[in-house]
């Protein structure tokens, strides 16, 4: 029995057990002491937790106060804004004071080169074809290995990053909540995975591999060839492709929403090139490469859409075989639709149509599932996925070393796809960056790689499995020599009750063309306007016209149903940006090492390790941790020079002209008295007159004071599918 006054009567032995009290007490005392110690430790932990929570709630972002401050300032210089780098909460792009304008150098070089190419291609397509073929042969023979290596390195690097401690770093400020709910974010990633490829390559690519398997793999038209065909298709459209988008999108989101920089590809490289070079020659070169890659990558998609539309029109109208002249007319008509959407203020309707487009595409896939060989497809989907996982490393290892036939296959398919995804990465990456603010790096990477890929595995399994099943069953129209644009419409023709579906498909493809051209043109407008999220209308229209012109040239390099011209130019123009992708990995990892959250973790590990060793050495088991000043170099920094420019330069705030200006991170006040309201009216008026492609711009026309840069930066162009 104990004298603890808190003990209740139910623990008292009672008079009827007094004779056993001494023995019982002897047995129970150790247990009671352990329980009492445990209760005391829990109480202490709760008290410390409450005190810690109060302290964190009153977190001061400035240098230490009190008697140690003078000593610290004697030993060290001053931090920007009197704020230690581990205490900076991050800077969002909309908190910066920045003037946007057209970058005449980037616009002149990128625009001049691409316009000259379009003129050359239209006036002398044969000479362009000859040069493109020569460049294509050289690139696939000599740098095909580079594309394979880039795809592998990117996927492996991002998975390592996601599961490393850096994965906890947010793509935003400390404590910032995600801009979109998880459901909405997943839905938008889902939308990003739906595009022209599902209707064009979905039924045709697996059928091609089934009839003509990759060299040194399976015999044609066998069960093994069936599963190998699905695995090869998944390899091209799955994890590797979305890892490329995740790399560019994650790096852009981190630079913009954590470091406060513009939504430019060059902003990623500030830690690698330095601010001067990032805003100078090196940064401009990166943005020019990004524009050229995006132009040709998106133009290839527009060319494919036009080919598919042309095939549909030929079938529906009975106009006969598709010709290049028909394709040019289709592209001109759809380009006119894009121009109208860009300058007339109907972008809200285009966005709604884009959302409807996604629903219609999913509906088409569902119709094929339920009207086609449903049981066969339900069995095929999991088998195809497991075949993909089982053969992934084998497919990753295919290269020129496997022989000339494998090299030719790689050039026509795998290398082409890697080049295409690299070309699309600035466009798609910018979109997913803008919808992922506030997510952790881990959540962003894993979500971006696996959510759209899973969707595509299902969609391509359904479309490809159905086309192979119909071919094996001898369905009408299926042959071993049919062109890729014909496969989907032949598949539809063999389904019951859907005679009306070709008309819907043509509309879906047309909307895809317009929205893709519209969205990609805005991204290129941003790249030529120093990151302005509301680029001028004429800049957007200019890039849309150039993109359509490139699509025409690509199609003129081959016949009306061939992909050679598209493939050649995509691969050749993606070579420079493939190297840029590798530098993005280096730059992002380097910058994450100096992130405030990473520094806090390093300081915490150093402090605890030092304290435990010192405490055990001096006091054995009986010691506690306490924060006290140390001699310079002996503290938690563990040798980190916290005043080095790598840790401090990025959070020095500047005015609109780039001049340093004082800022208080605790109150959010600028030393010169500037407030966001000073520029909000001017910015909203500018947005109302320069952007007819944004929902927020439409709102600003009726209420200019209600729109800020923060509003306009996130609620636009969620149709980049």
TrEMBL record:
The chain crosses the membrane at residues 105-123, 143-163, 183-202, 239-257, 285-306, 326-346, 358-378, 415-432, 444-463, 500-526, 538-557, 569-589. InterPro entries: BCCT_transptr. The keyword Repeat does not apply. It is a multi-pass membrane protein. Residues 683-701 have a biased composition (Low complexity). PANTHER family: HIGH-AFFINITY CHOLINE TRANSPORT PROTEIN (PTHR30047:SF7), HIGH-AFFINITY CHOLINE TRANSPORT PROTEIN-RELATED (PTHR30047). It comes from Brevibacterium sediminis. This is Choline transporter. Belongs to the BCCT transporter (TC 2.A.15) family.
